[in-house]
Amino acid sequence: MEIIEILSWVATLCSLVYVVLAARSNIACWVFAIVGCAIWAYVSYDSRLYSDAGLQIFYIATAIAGWWRWSKSTGEAGEVLPIKRMTLREHAIIWLVGLPMGYLLGYYLGESWGAVATYWDAYTTVFSVIVTFAVINRRLENWLYWIAIDIVTGALYFSRGLDAFGIVMIVYTVVAAFGYVAWKREMQGRNIINPS
Questions:
Q1: To 10 degrees, the CA torsion angle through 184, 189, 195, 196?
Q2: What is the pLDDT of residues 18-39, one digit of tens each?
Q3: What is the pTM of this model?
Q4: What whole-number distance in Å separates Cα of residue 7 and Cα of residue 10?
Q5: Letter string b/e over residues 73-100, b meaning 16 or more CB atoms within 10 A of that residue's CB
Q6: What do you get for the CA distance between the two ends of the chain, in Å?
Q7: Which pLDDT tens digit goes with each residue over 162-178?
Q8: Residues 139/85, Cβ–Cβ less than 8 Å
Q9: How many Cα neighbours within 13 Å face the side chain of 53?
Q10: Rounded to 5 degrees, what are φ and ψ at 61?
């Protein structure tokens, strides 16, 4: 087994632990995010998926921010930052920023870096960056965006022969569905206890 393959499985395991803990609102998720993303960045760079490698570096920074935000923000019942629904404005920002930025990133990386699967990689990267802020701020619909992103990203990884990462995207899709249901239940339970 090559070192890249071993590293991809280690990153996969860390990433799976991260998303399961995030779906359960466990703040320890951010530690696994940092470790998994550091390894994932190396593997993606080695595979010439430059947008994805950059995305993993971004994820390390946002994991630190998420860890800080979740630890400093608690609701009235002492839970982690309360879950809220996304506003129409937040949805609009995702699309109005994501579409042109994905195109520009894809164009740049295709012209300047000789990246592979250029626009596919760029769009999943840009939308992943934007939606990460919805996770940090505990917006319920982040999970629905992740389901779509994970399906497309999984197909990208399989097309590049990165089967371990493709498999983790399949699992992420299932966990994202679980996360949506769990966070919705948590949000509804909080509203029953503390109606606002």
A1: -30
A2: 988 988 888 899 999 999 999 9
A3: 0.76
A4: 5
A5: eeeeeeebbbbeebeeebeeebeeebee
A6: 55
A7: 887 788 899 889 999 99
A8: yes
A9: 13
A10: -65, -45
